[in-house]
Amino acid sequence: MPRTTSSIAYSEMIGAVLRARRIEAGLTQAQVGERLGVGQSYVNRMETGRINMTIGQLGRVCDALGATLRVRLDVPERDPLLDRMLDGAHATAGHRA
Q1: Do residues 51 and 11 lie in contact, with contact meaning Cβ atoms separated by under 8 Å?
Q2: pLDDT in tens, 10-40
Q3: 11, 54, 63, 89: most buried, per Cβ within 10 A?
Q4: Helix (H) and strand (E) counts in the chain
């Protein structure tokens, strides 16, 4: 998937959290890199959002930091106008049957 403005923003937010957890754990980027089998510069790119990690990679980083990966997906409230439009489309489709 190509990187988009929103995917870059998410990568930067996740990277900032990883950096905070690393600092809380008292680890250097080099130490985290050693645990992951990557170089310090790769860890730096993760922390600055320049790498779009998979969920599996993120899980490995969390393990290296002694952190727990939790995923939460919130569904936004439905748009009332969209609901009316969909209800109207369903009603019309029902009359045609």
Answers
A1: yes
A2: 999 999 999 999 999 999 999 999 999 999 9
A3: 11
A4: 5, 0
